[in-house]
């Protein structure tokens, strides 16, 4: 079991602790996270897929020594899947056993079957009832859920409590550290945003991406890591970015570096790019758009500065 650590005393300490856990946060992100910890407010992270939103929750869980509880959102997500369900099979067995004994009082029987031992806790309730020091709750891709689910989240986000009709109001045993992520597939309701601190997470600058690649793909040489970071950075920049539906994320950069190491690649050339394009891109059209001519241009020297 992890030993819990107190919240880092400063932004710089938090940056160093995250780096030790393998996550390289820039200062603006670290400040937003530090304030979320200090003010005990949820933090909403928005950004393109693959910029490190989910990975931040995983690293923070390690830094704080708290268990990570993940609620993966999707279209059609229901409250019972996020909060709780009753173990109907066990309740039915209890009722049948009571009926077999005879003389069962229906009011008493109802109280018995709605005891906590028949409660199946889902992520929100697990986070609220986690023992001290509490949990890190990741509400991942909240933009995939529908608006009624957003409305359901408001009580939790604003007061760290939820209402269970058969039991009453359940308040946090220890305040969970709560991170919400969104890929911006749709706008979230203002009521959700008002209850959270907010940070837009963008693709990393070259130096930070290089540090991430070196840490996550230690088998890559310094020269190969630098070439990976430079190549992917150019892919995301104009005029190349317009050719693709989705630019590669940080995870793709790291995976590509590992693949190049596995292939004993010393220097990236157009042929290697063509052979491994399916690691950088997950859409057929994007793979096709990365032509040999474009690879040559991407691998060429930087244009002269005016």
Automatic annotation (TrEMBL):
<dbReference type="InterPro" id="IPR011704">
    <property type="entry name" value="ATPase_dyneun-rel_AAA"/>
</dbReference>
<feature type="domain" description="AAA+ ATPase">
    <location>
        <begin position="39"/>
        <end position="195"/>
    </location>
</feature>
<dbReference type="InterPro" id="IPR003593">
    <property type="entry name" value="AAA+_ATPase"/>
</dbReference>
<protein>
    <submittedName>
        <fullName>MoxR family ATPase</fullName>
    </submittedName>
</protein>
<dbReference type="InterPro" id="IPR050764">
    <property type="entry name" value="CbbQ/NirQ/NorQ/GpvN"/>
</dbReference>
<dbReference type="InterPro" id="IPR027417">
    <property type="entry name" value="P-loop_NTPase"/>
</dbReference>
<dbReference type="Pfam" id="PF07728">
    <property type="entry name" value="AAA_5"/>
</dbReference>
